[in-house]
Amino acid sequence: MDYKTVYITGEARTNLDNAITKIYGTFYMAFEIDLKTGEILKTDCNATMKLTREFIKNIFNGKILDKDEKIITEEISNRYFASSDRAIVVAYRDALQKYKKIKK
């Protein structure tokens, strides 16, 4: 079977006082990636508020997972001002490493 997309997750820790840590223990992000182009088709995460999840989706969806790293991290830095900002970058980079292994 010739699959066109892959599902990749990334994980990171958040601050001890963050609601994500209190509820889930770890921050997770999930991506559906077009295997041929690397485009991020769908993004989800275990943030506790719907607005947060939607905001994060808007940052990632449509970007190229392995080619837009600088754009993605700058956008997080310039637009996302909450305590889980570093966790988002770490979870993204964790997923990026998994994607690079798949592509080899």
Protein architecture, described:
Strand 2 (27-34) and strand 3 form a beta hairpin. The chain is built from four helices and three strands, in the order E-H-E-E-H-H-H. Helix 3 (69-79) packs antiparallel against helix 4. With 104 residues, it is α+β, with helices and mostly antiparallel strands. It is globular, with a radius of gyration of 13 Å. The chain has one domain (5-103): Sufe protein. Chain: A (Alpha-Beta Complex), CATH 3.90.1010.10. The protein has a three-stranded antiparallel β-sheet with strand order 1-2-3. Helix content is 45%, strand content 21%. It starts with a strand and ends with a helix.
Mean pLDDT: 91
The succession of helices and strands, N to C, reads: EHEEHHH
Strand content: 15-25%
Shape by Cα distribution? globular
Distance between the termini: 19 Å
Give the % helix.
40-55%
Radius of gyration: 13 Å
Count of helix runs: 4
* Largest sheet report: 3 strands, antiparallel
Which assembly state applies to the chains in this document?
A: single chain
- Assigned CATH class: Alpha Beta
- The CATH architecture comes to Alpha-Beta Complex
* Main sheet strand line-up: 1-2-3
CATH fold group: Sufe protein. Chain: A
Give the number of domains: 1
Which structural category do the helix and sheet elements fall into? alpha+beta
